[in-house]
Amino acid sequence: MRITVVMNEKAGTLAQGDGHAIATGVRNAFAHAGHTVNVAAVKPRDMQSAVQRSITTKPDVLVVGGGDGSLNGALNMLGRAPIALGVLPLGTMNLTARDIGLPPDPVDAAKAMARGTIAPVDVANLNGTRFLHAAVLGFYPWMVLDRDRARRRRGLSKWPAMIRAGWRALFRRHELEIDVDLGTDAGDRVQLRTPLLVVANNRFVDGAGPVPTRASLADGELAVYVAETTGPLSLLRLAAAVAAGRWESAPGIHFAACRSLTVASSRRRLRVAVDGELMHFEPPLSFRLEQGRLYFLMPSGE
């Protein structure tokens, strides 16, 4: 196959290691498996243009080296182009990379993909913006905003800034008043007051721990998680449940599965974390599932 790899040279793993050695290892992994490969490491500000140029060359596979945000950017630029997508885990969480079973080392990940296969996966869509992992409303987008401010103003690294934001979030009110229509034949529509609404592209494994993990990217459902809290103490209990990965078994979290979802609000704009990136949308928010509409390079099981 013809494979193009575009890596964010400032992504955590690449910035902390020997970037040239990693790029060479990735190139050799694909080349030794018989693929024609082109590898480019670019500055963060050049990722979008580099990905766009790569799409115009029409490779069989475009592999994005970065975090979940970089992967989301490539997904939305890809549109309906007949190009498969792949990922090298160079970010902080690497949620999609974890879910498909990639090893955390980028060279090992490239070796696994070089022997892998292309398979269809589901994509979620929010008002025209596609995402692979999850879209989150409520206190988590505020934490992302506060984290990014702390990194700019205080020079904190990502994890200390996020821990600080999580502590600060406990003492703020984050409740959203929303109307939710699950898009079912029964016309299920409810009014909610919630500090957290998560819409995931396929459901999380319950009890898997602090990193939200999915068993499949192709089960054909949107997984909706709605939290119910009444103050800082219940918000703390919710945070503990989420840290344990109790997305369906925690008493303060309600779960539903659907293929489409509409969220209405009286607010002019809603802050949403989409695949970890902060975005703003005008309501109503229309979520829908694009079942099997993306081809993804999966690692071999060896």
Automatic annotation (TrEMBL):
It holds the Pfam family DAGK_cat. The keyword Nucleus does not apply. The keyword Transferase applies. GO terms for molecular function: ATP binding; kinase activity. Keywords: ATP-binding, Kinase, Nucleotide-binding, Transferase. Residues 1-130 form the DAGKc domain. It comes from the Bacteria. Signal peptide: none annotated. Coiled coil: none annotated. Gene3D superfamilies: 2.60.200.40, Probable inorganic polyphosphate/atp-NAD kinase, domain 1. InterPro entries: ATP-NAD_kinase_N, Diacylglycerol_kinase_cat_dom, Lipid_Phosphate_FormReg, NAD/diacylglycerol_kinase_sf, YegS/DAGK_C. PANTHER family: SPHINGOSINE KINASE, SPHINGOSINE KINASE RELATED PROTEIN. This is Diacylglycerol kinase.
